[in-house]
Design a protein that fits this description.
1 helix, eight-stranded antiparallel beta barrel, single chain, alpha+beta, 18% helix, 48% strand
């Protein structure tokens, strides 16, 4: 095999791997740092995240966040340790098998964030 073919195969493999990671986005199953399992899905162009097992099964953490690809934001985020009527401005970003989720209560001054790991 020539050097050119080896380089071309390497580039193709890298592009496929990167494309697969980017295509995954936030959809799928995630593990919170406290051990909760969260299912994230995109429906009608909006992101939804719900705890499926752990501390509060059925609790919806993000509801209808706008965005696409690996970046989402919205004002209907909830935290399982806070009263259910409280909502926060939040953001979600995905990089490979890591999801960062952040919610802020007063503008962007009182914030909490977590990093989740993708469950394969």
């Amino acid at each position: 095999m020539t050097y050119t073919k080896i380089v071309m195969w390497g580039i193709a493999a890298l592009a496929f791997t990167a494309g697969t990671a980017l295509a995954d986005g936030p959809q799928g199953t995630w593990k919170r740092q406290n051990g909760d399992t969260v299912k994230a899905l995109v429906s009608n162009g909006k992101l939804y995240c719900k705890i499926v097992s752990g501390s509060k099964p059925g609790f919806e953490m993000c509801h209808g966040m706008a965005g696409s690809g690996n970046t989402w934001a919205g004002g209907a985020m909830k935290h399982p340790s806070m009263p259910g009527f409280m909502t926060f401005n939040g953001s979600v970003s995905v990089s490979g098998n890591s999801l960062s989720i952040k919610g802020c209560a007063v503008g962007k001054s009182m914030c909490d964030s977590e990093r989740w790991s993708r469950v394969k």
